[in-house]
Amino acid sequence: MLADIARFLLDILGSLLVALLLLRAWMRYIGMPSRNPVAMFTFAMTNWLVGPVSRVLPSRGRIDWASILSALVVTLLLVLLMRAVVGVAIPWDFALLAALRQLVIWGLNVIVWVTIIYVVIGWVNPHAPFAPAFEMLLHPLLKPIRRAVPTVGGFDLSPMVLLIGVYVLQMVVARL
User: Fold this and answer.
1) Residue 100 has what pLDDT?
2) Each residue's pLDDT tens digit, 161-176
3) Would you kindly state where each structural domain of the chain is located, as residue ranges?
4) Minimal CA–CA distance to 141: which of 123, 125, 122, 164?
5) DSSP 3-state assignment of 155?
6) What is the rounded CA–CA span in Å between residue 107 and residue 19?
7) Which of 9, 32, 53, 120 has CB atoms 3.0–4.6 Å from 27's, for a disulfide?
8) Mean pLDDT across the stretch 25-35?
9) Burial of 157 (0-12, 13-18, 19+ CB in 10 A)
10) Which residues of 28-58 are buried (b: 16+ CB within 10 A; e: fewer)?
């Protein structure tokens, strides 16, 4: 029972941290202003880890390598810790592959959660101060879908198509 609780807590806390790190890299890639409330929260929650890494591995262009490397290292540590809690030792090469797989799954989960929040904000309060952040995050993903899938009766179906695509990708990655 204690092993299950430890795995649960590691999974929740680790996936939240990795999600914030990936969200930070995503925000940097799309050029989100740092004064945005979502960006301010994300940076505040991850600066303790990304700050020291960025001194060693500075960002080049739009890619935030420090956030990506931090997310990979945290994921690798979590994979190793979860295996240790269960009592299973794994070789480093397998651990790295498992960490990459888990990182991709968590990255896809970030897209799912950002999409769900975007849709809910659109229904509840589309003029909320953080609504533009979610629009900015999803615009590059929704734009090609919106060109292919027209609105039906005033409803934008592109978030639903994006979610279906992400879930299919998660199934493919989970089978690897």
Assistant:
1) 95
2) 999 999 999 999 998 8
3) 2-175
4) 164
5) strand
6) 7
7) 32
8) 93
9) middle
10) bbeebeeebebbeebbebbeebbeebbeebe
